[in-house]
Design a protein that fits this description.
ATP-binding; 10 strands; ABC_transporter-like_CS; binds adenosine-5'-triphosphate; P-loop_NTPase; ATP binding; alpha/beta; ATP hydrolysis activity; about 675 residues
Length: about 675
């Protein structure tokens, strides 16, 4: 059942509606899926997830041309800005040759003073006009480039986010959210810088250098020959430094990503961090990746076992400074060398003084352009590296496909579901632990509108069954059907719309109560209906007691509501989706007895006229179920009603005995007290 991954276009990523995200064809970009590679290695060696290294979100970087394809939808804008760049550069580079006329007029013995003044004024007027034209065109060019960059990066961010949202659970098992956030943030910014300014500046440098070299040849072929030799020396010396800068930049980004992963984890669980007084531990974990300048006795970073951004950043600064010193220092060296030779040419009458000044200016421009090309080449490489990581995320094909391999047969989307569930010989191993079977030959029929309770030892696979029914993962073998439809033949959205799911720790979002309740609802819901459902879920009274009632903000991840309130809101949220099947995964296990009673009442109402699967540890919550399934060692040990299992299932008897032992002293002391 495991589907093969292959590359895809952004618009194919998912059937989740995301508005108009323009498709960018990335089919030609080959990608190495390192996550899959890591899994394969694990399979090969028979090792488990715990022993393998964290997979890196990285793919083979695209070629320069493939990288340019990312900006394909903006090609007209970019070509226009390129045309502006050429015109602006030609008009700017003509200036030294025009100014040379003024110099020559100054020293021309044949001109009388009024002709000389006229020549100088005419020349300088021309200079001002061309400067103005160059400035206006340059302004347009920068605006257009910036706009194109914003458009490309916004599209890429949306495409990447869309793809990440559509991934299967094995992706989330393997990937740290901090890393994805880093891809959306810093990698996208690097890529934007590279596309909107790195490549245009690189092209601008090339164009300017070519124009200057042509004009230099026009002024003096001899002097140009000598000067270009120097320029090439600078270029070749700076090349390895540029490459080194590229490697350091990639390392810097990866390390920053690792630091962000750590900080996201800690900031996402502030209560756990503070209750374990682990602030310093978390700070140290973050500092390991960021590097602490105050830990070194010197002003440079101390050597450390772990790669950190401070240390890499320091090396980057060193290489960057050497790079620019070489470009500008070398540029000036060859400028003065050519000036020296130029003086001799003027002395010999082979060059006018005006042409020598113009030439000087071109030498400087060419050195500057070479520096600009090399510097921006490093930036483009940074962008290419970043795009490799982003493309991995965008092109990753979810293991749970949103359409059939045979595209011609559409997935089924029944208008109504009765809710008869059947598991037939289902076996399953998590993709990250392919050698540990979590379910073995699991078979179970749950008739429409009945309740099945899954009980058994911890780790037996109860929650996994709930995950498989929602297709968070696909079974390794066997079949799961609802009303006779294989769930793999159903449209994923249709399947999940028909299933309501209440987790042990339901997640609320940082919205209002109303927005949280209507999270999965696509139809109009009136206030009366909302209140009725919340009453059924025992949630209306506490919502109504808050000053802002249904408009109350619940805080990030619902931190401002209690565990029991969260559960009841989650039940109401599930009910509002009109689900035919309700999955309750340990919905009351984390609650005190008073909250449990309130939630249990809500659950009892919610179970009416629905097919329900309850995963529970407390037997008191499942005794009324139509059938109880006892799980042991990843398979079914017994099935039946409470009364039947007490007679037939050793495991069930064990579970009852253990819970009675726990409750007995409490009930005895209670009886004595009253
Ligand atoms: N995402 C995952 N990746 C790899 N292994 C997993 C994953 N989730 C669960 N497991 C493993 O699968 C086995 C079954 O887990 P499951 O959560 O289904 O058990 P359970 O019966 O619900 O346990 P409990 O009652 O403690 O919640 C366990 O050994 C667990 O470590």
């Amino acid at each position: 059942m495991n589907s093969q991954r292959h590359t895809k276009t952004i618009d194919e990523a998912t059937d989740i509606e995301l508005g108009d995200v323009d498709p960018i064809s990335l089919k030609d970009i080959p990608l190495k899926d390192n996550t899959t590679a890591a899994s394969t290695e694990a399979t090969g060696s028979g090792s488990d997830a715990g022993s393998k290294e964290e997979p890196q979100l990285e793919s083979t970087p695209p070629t320069f041309f493939q990288f340019l394809l990312l900006a394909k939808p903006e090609l007209p804008l970019l070509l226009f800005s390129f045309a502006l760049l050429i015109v602006a550069d030609i008009s700017n580079q003509l200036l030294p040759i025009i100014i040379a006329r003024a110099y020559n007029a100054l020293v021309d013995p044949l001109l009388d003073p009024s002709d000389r003044t006229h020549e100088i004024n005419f020349t300088m007027m021309l200079v001002f006009i061309l400067t103005l034209v160059g400035a206006v065109l340059g302004w347009f060019r920068l605006c257009i480039q910036g706009l194109a960059g914003e458009r490309v990066v916004a599209r890429l961010r949306l495409g990447m986010y869309k793809s990440v949202l559509s991934q299967d659970m094995s992706f989330y098992d393997e990937t740290k959210s901090g890393e994805v956030v880093s891809r959306l943030g810093s990698d996208a910014t690097l890529l934007q810088g590279s596309l909107s300014s790195g490549i245009p500046e690189l092209l601008s440098g090339v164009v300017r250098a070519i124009i200057c070299i042509i004009l230099m040849f026009y002024l003096s072929a001899k002097l140009t020959g000598m000067t270009l030799g120097g320029v090439f020396v600078i270029f070749f010396l700076s090349f390895p430094l540029g490459k080194c800068l590229k490697t350091l930049s990639r390392l810097y980004q990866n390390t920053l990503g690792e630091a962000q992963t750590r900080s996201t984890e800690a900031l996402g669980s502030p209560r756990t961090v503070q209750s374990f007084v682990a602030e310093e531990k978390e700070l140290n974990r973050y500092a390991e990746k960021i590097g602490d300048p105050d830990k070194s006795k010197n002003w440079w970073p101390a050597a450390s076992d772990e790669r950190n951004t401070y240390e890499i950043g320091f090396k980057k600064v060193m290489v960057n400074s050497s790079f620019y010193t070489l470009i500008f220092g070398g540029g000036f060296f060859f400028l003065y060398l050519s000036l020296w030779y130029g003086f001799h040419l003027v002395n010999n009458g082979e060059l006018s003084i005006g042409d020598l000044t113009a030439f000087q200016s071109y030498v400087f421009q060419v050195s500057f352009s070479v520096g600009q090309v090399a510097g921006n080449l490093a930036r483009v490489y940074e962008g290419i590296g970043a795009s490799g990581r982003m493309l991995y995320l965008m092109n990753r094909e979810p293991a749970i496909p949103s359409k059939r391999e045979d595209d011609d047969v559409p997935l089924e989307e029944p208008e109504h579901m009765d809710g008869r569930i059947e598991f037939k010989n289902v076996s399953f191993a998590y993709p990250s632990r392919p050698n540990s079977k979590v379910l073995r030959d699991f078979s179970l029929v749950i008739p429409q509108n009945t309740t099945a309770a899954l009980v058994g030892s911890s780790g037996a696979g109860k929650s996994t069954i709930v995950s498989l029914l929602q297709r968070f993962y696909d079974a390794t073998s066997g079949s799961i059907t609802i009303d006779g439809h294989e769930i793999t033949d159903l449209k994923l959205a249709c399947l999940r719309h028909n299933i309501g799911y209440v987790e042990q720790e339901p997640q609320l979002f940082g919205f209002t109560v109303r927005e949280n309740l209507l999270y999965g609802v696509t139809r109009e819901v009136s206030q009366e209906e909302l209140e009725r459902v919340c009453r059924d879920a025992n949630a209306h009274d506490f919502i109504d007691s808050w000053p802002e009632k249904y408009e109350t903000f619940v805080g990030e991840k619902g931190v401002k509501v209690s565990g029991g309130q969260k559960q009841r809101l989650a039940i109401a949220r599930a009910l509002l989706t009109d689900c035919r099947i309700l999955l309750l995964d340990e919905a009351t296990s984390a609650l005190d007895s008073e909250s449990e009673a309130l939630v249990q009442q809500a659950i009892d109402k919610a179970m009416q006229n629905r097919t329900v699967i309850i995963v529970a540890h407390r037997l008191s919550t499942v005794m009324q179920a139509d059938q109880i399934v006892v799980m042991d060692d990843h398979q079914i040990e017994g099935t039946g009603t409470h009364e039947e299992l007490i007679q037939s299932s050793k495991k069930y008897q064990d579970l009852i005995r253990r819970q009675s032992v726990m409750i007995k002293p409490i009930t005895e002391s209670f009886s004595k007290a009253v």
